[in-house]
Amino acid sequence: MATSVLTSWLKTMKRIALVVLVLTPVWMFLIWFFWPKRKLTVAIIDKTVLTTQAQEHISFNWILNHEKFVKNNEHLYNPSTDYFGFFPEENEKFRLKGLERFTKNQLIQLSADADLVYLTDAYGIYRNEWIKHSDTKERSGIIYGGTSDADMQFLQLMQQNKKLIIAEFNSLGSPTSPIVRSEFEKTFGIKWLNWIGRYFAVLDTTVNTELPKWMIKNYLLQHKHQWPFKGSGIVFVRSDDRIEILSYPADLTFQMPVIYATAEGKNYYQLPEKIKYNYWFEINKLNKSYNHSIANFSIETNVAGTDSLLRWGIPKTFPAVSVHSNTDYRFFYFSGDFCDNPIHLFSAYFKWVEYFKWMFYNTQDPEERKSFFWKFYNPLVTKILNDYYQSRMQ
Rounded to an integer, what distance in angstroms lies between the CA atom of residue 218 and that of residue 236? Predict the structure, then answer.
């Protein structure tokens, strides 16, 4: 008798669990759908959009949509259309709709209308990436890219209007002109040290056919035609195309860069104490009278690796997230390609989906980047936007 009662109870509980499992996403969507919308006029600048999926700024759009920030009291932001920059079309055609076509008066009007600007990716589009059947691992002439004079004028107007400014890798590096770069550095108190870098899980050229050919070619020319790498490592590229590599475990005690949050980063911006980072980054130095960092990159080296960094003039620790220290305007700079994450907009339309973030990534894969979005980028940018929106409503 007791056994049959227990069996019946277990079957009932399984049915309830199944119903909850099925209905939870439905309720999460309905709550998100009826959640109040909030108008926030956002100017997104992205010059590196190869497909209509707009992967290079989709992380930011995910947050805008998830938080119900809308562009005109009604409509959500569309990552394929709501930005300034390069617009891909079929059959290798494209449209350029950047700020370069704006007059001075139009830039002034845009800076008055916009609540914030996010310069997500100024690297641009190159011919070998755009023309079909080209070798994408080789370098070629540029079609469009770089932080322009018009972009810089707009950023300065937004600064004068005390609007929110967010910029990230690659706003300062090539192909941005030295004149515009210098103006950016002077205006916002951040100095690029002429180095960028990236982690590669496999440096063996016979195994990893995705390694950039220009990187391999330059390294061989600069290092007596020797390529001694098999495992993982961090590749550093200087503005004059100098290539240097730290390999694991010969030079590194941990195979990829680690981002450590400061006390402010952890306590206020809800960042994890540390997190791995395995994509493109740049090495910057802050003017401490302008900005401070709330998270820093760390290259975890042994004695040999530390000696190499010293010889190349690369610091072991450098800013990952920089914040303007005063209240005269709001400025954030991300020293990595933070907005480019392999995520999908679909999950944005479920309230509190971030509590189930563990379902969306596998941390055992050293090349996965989704965990960075869920653990670092999403809480950081969400906090920035919500704080700014609240300040605008006061």
Answer: 12
**Cα dihedral across residues 320, 321, 325, 326: positive or negative:** positive
Question: What does the domain layout of the chain look like in residue ranges?
Answer: 35-393
Whether 22 shows a pLDDT value over 60: the answer reads: no
> For the chain, give me the number of helices (H) and strands (E)?
11, 18
Decide: 220 and 191 in contact? Cβ < 8 Å.
no
Q: Provide DSSP, 53-70.
A: T-GGGHHHHHHHHHTTEE
Residue 278 and residue 261: Cα distance in Å, rounded? 17
**Kind plus residue range of the DSSP H or E element containing 88:** strand 84-88
Q: What's the CA gap between 249 and 56, in Å, rounded?
A: 32
Q: CA triplet 237, 238, 241: central angle to 5 degrees? A: 80
Chain-centroid distance of CA 186 in Å reads: 23
pTM of structure: 0.91
Q: What is the per-residue pLDDT across 221-233, written as a single tens digit (0 to 9) for each? A: 999 999 999 999 9
Q: For residues 29 and 104, is the Cβ–Cβ distance under 8 A? A: no
